[in-house]
Specification:
With 205 residues, this protein is mainly α. It is built from seven helices and no strands. Helix 2 packs antiparallel against helix 3 and helix 3 (66-107) packs across helix 7. It is elongated. Mean pLDDT is 86; it is low at 201-205.
Length: 205
């Protein structure tokens, strides 16, 4: 028996989940920032209380040391407010990135049917083939590929799925998709930013 015949076949490597590590990383970061946010909030309350008590002692109790302590407490309070805002913003960003990766993993698995935006608002009985080819609605192509969070982006995707394009346009879109494919971090950062912008717009409406 030859060496080749006796060697056991090498199993193919198991497919890896490209988003699992990113989901875990951003969820862990969000939890860490959440703990920091609560700590900074406590410091902010403490500095505010110190400033108020010192001011009362300085104005009503005649304590000479009260005034500088009140000023110091006020300065610390303002600093904590700025610090807290930055921690909250970073926590929100980490949560959005975790959500982006959860949605991305859903798109490459059977879980994509649960993605919330199925584009049914773009479906039209007047379109010659959109309904027949499941372009919009539950289980649609739009539901699986959509990463847009702004109305402009969602309308643009719906237009691409329903309006004809000539070969040069198709090739340009394919080249753009190939250029963006390796830029996972940049694409997800842009998506997370769009989701934040969209949420802020909805709050203003």
């Amino acid at each position: 028996m030859t060496t080749n015949e006796s060697a056991a076949p090498v199993p193919a490597p198991a497919p890896t989940d490209p988003y699992a590590e990113r989901i875990e990383r951003f969820e862990r970061l969000a939890a860490k920032l959440g703990r920091s946010s609560r700590l900074v909030s406590n410091f902010r309350g403490l500095s505010f209380g110190t400033a108020v008590i010192a001011l009362v002692l300085a104005t009503l109790g005649g304590e000479s040391a009260g005034a500088p302590i009140a000023v110091l407490g006020a300065v610390l309070f303002v600093g904590c407010v700025v610090w807290h805002a930055r921690v909250i913003a970073a926590e929100d960003d980490a949560l959005r990135m975790a959500r982006v990766n959860l949605d991305a993993r859903a798109r490459v698995t059977g879980a994509w049917h649960a993605l919330p935006d199925d584009g049914r608002r773009f479906a039209s009985d007047e379109h010659p083939y959109a309904l027949d080819l499941d372009r919009f609605g539950p289980g649609s192509l739009y539901q699986r590929v959509n990463v847009a969070h702004t109305r402009f982006g969602q309308k643009a995707l719906a237009r691409f799925l329903t309006e004809p394009a000539d070969p040069p346009q198709i090739r340009l879109r394919q080249e753009a998709a190939r250029a963006l494919e390796p830029l996972l971090e940049e694409r997800q950062r842009l998506e997370a930013l769009a989701s934040a912008t969209s949420a802020e717009s909805e709050l203003r409406l």
